[in-house]
Amino acid sequence: MNDASDDLPEPDERPDRPSITLAIRPDQIEHAPEKITWETVTLTNAGLPALLRFAAWHLEIGAAKVSFYLDQDMPDVERFFAPYPRVSVIPCTPEWWASIGRERLPAHQNRQAVAATQAYRSSQSHWLCHIDTDEFLLPETSIADWLASAPDDMAVLNIAPVEQLASTTQDNTYHFKMGPRFAGQTGALR
Questions:
Q1: Closest CA to 177 of 162, 158, 161
Q2: Can you name the residues that pair with 90 across neighbouring β-strands?
Q3: Taking a C-beta distance cutoff of 8 angstroms, is the pair 148, 36 a contact?
C-alpha cells in the first residue's frame, strides 16, 4: 500500500528540521506578540507549595493558563485553585481515564503524553508548553515576543527551562540549574 508518508525523507536526511512535522493551519499563525497566547501543561504529584510557586511564576511571565493534571488524589490542590480561572486542575482519577477511553498507563512518561495531548485538544492558545513543576521558563525577553519570531512552518519548539534543585537550607532557599548546552558550556566535567 502506498502511503503519503512513503514520500517523506527519513528524519536523519533533514537534520535542520524536527523529526516530527505537524501541519499548521494558516489561520493559527500569529506574529503580533500582543495577540499571542501560550499555556503550560503538567502532570504532577507535587505538593501545593510547589504548584503555587509554579503557577504564580508562569502566570506572571505571561501564560494565559496553567493546567495541572494531578497524578494522585490531591483535594487540597483542587480546593485551593478552584477560585482561579487561569489555573486548571484536572484530577486523573479512574473516572477521568475512563472518560477519555483509556486505562491509567503504568509509566509516568506515557501519562504525561496523554495529559499533554488532552490539554492540546482543549487549548485555546497559540502555543502549549509541556513542562514539569520543578522546571521554570526564564526568558531573556517576553515569551510572546520570542514565540512571535517562530517561523510559520515551525509547530514544535525546544525551550530550555531552568530546573529547581531541592532546598537544603532551613530558610527554603532554592537554587536553579540549566543544562550545560543552554548555559553556554561544553558537556565536559570541570
A1: 162
A2: 69
A3: yes
DSSP label at residue 92: -
Evaluate whether 67 touches 85 at the Cβ level (below 8 Å): no
Partners of 128 in beta bridges: 39
The C-alpha atoms of residue 120 and residue 40 are separated, in whole angstroms, by 10
- Kindly give the pairing relationship between strand 38-44 and strand 65-70: parallel
Helix (H) or strand (E) holding 128, with range, is: strand 127-130
Domain ranges (residues) in the chain: 36-161
pLDDT digits (tens, 9 = 90+) for 112-139: 999 999 999 999 999 999 998 888 888 8
pTM comes to 0.75
C-alpha pair distances (Å), 102 with each of 14, 97, 106, 108, 114: 35, 5, 12, 14, 9
Contact 124, 37 (CB under 8 A): yes
Counts for the chain of helices (H) and strands (E), in that order: 5, 7
Domain 36-161: CATH class, spelled out: alpha beta
Judged by DSSP in three states, 133 sits in: coil
Q: Which amino acid is at 28?
A: Q
Decide which of 175 and 78 is more confident: 78
Residue written as grid cell 500569529: 30
Q: What are phi and psi of 105, to 5 degrees?
A: -85, 145
User: Following DSSP, what letter does each residue of 145-165 receive, concatenated?
Assistant: HHHHTS-TT--------EEEP
